[in-house]
Protein: L-aspartate dehydrogenase
Amino acid sequence: MLNITMIGCGAIGVAVLELLENDTQMRVEHVIASAGSEALVQQRLAAFKYPPQVLTALPADARPDLLVECAGHMAIEEHVLPALERGIACLIVSVGALSQVGLVERLEAAAARGNTRIELLPGAIGGIDALSAAKVGGLDSVDYTGRKPAKAWKNTPAEQVCDLEKIDQATVIFQGSAREAARLYPKNANVAATLSLAGLGLDRTRVTLIADPLSEENVHHFEARGAFGGFEMSLRGKPLQANPKTSALTVYSVVRALGNHAHAISI
Ligand SMILES: NC(=O)C1=CN([C@@H]2O[C@H](COP(=O)(O)OP(=O)(O)OC[C@H]3O[C@@H](n4cnc5c(N)ncnc54)[C@H](O)[C@@H]3O)[C@@H](O)[C@H]2O)C=CC1
Ligand SMILES: O=C([O-])CC(=O)C(=O)O
Structure:
């Protein structure tokens, strides 16, 4: 039985727990919540058959097989770095956090000291296997466009670019590097960072972000060219009801990754 600690228990966390409830090969024993939100998280878990214990930090003697982050950028520094130092393997969805200069190197060093690994999950996008394979032969360009309904951009810098309540057509709210996109839109540009880390890097991956009042989907489109040839993909993700910024595929990506650790065959 794979013993898992989950960081964060919001839209992604709750949906992952629901899907794992009847899995006999893995169990989330602990959920790490932000200080002050323990009661709310306990409430979210009340209906579960085996509710995980809710804590605000991993106890010093806890040795989960895996730690999975479903919380947000701040959780990488706060929980993932120390867990790696302690030798606990980590899976993360807040990949955009790695746009902070020096954090990749610090994560690598912590994992080396702990003799363990960190896995960056594809989350809401696909094709990461092909893109990172293409990188081996050399990439010339990677262009990514993220298009989400207008309400998905609430409480982001997009509000300074346009009136999200009033726009009646697709509106470009950002154009620039993946590093800048991840910094400005931590809850909406993790895909941009993931594509960059798999491909041409945070400074050379070109990103366009669009608020689209006519769309009900989170559409992720990218085009890559290089020695391998070229490919493009478009993924039309359904947003989670509990959080319109987040696509349901992110939840399935977490469950798939955990299953690959728990089950005999990984795919
Ligand atoms: N890689 C990808 O494709 C995607 C990645 N994400 C990432 O996943 C994160 C979570 O997404 P949702 O579940 O939809 O958000 P949410 O806002 O519904 O839930 C996040 C939960 O984590 C908790 N939290 C925040 N910081 C924490 C910390 N330092 N320690 C413990 N708990 C903490 C919050 O209190 C909240 O309950 C996003 O912020 C984003 O960074 C989201 C969507 C796609
Ligand atoms: O869930 C999505 O569609 C993608 C997302 O929020 C991100 O890239 O941060």
The pocket of NAI (ligand 1) is lined by residues 7-13, 32-34, 37, 70-75, 78, 93-95, 123-124, 186-187, 190-191, 194, 243, 246, 250 (CB under 6 Å). The chain has a mean pLDDT of 97.
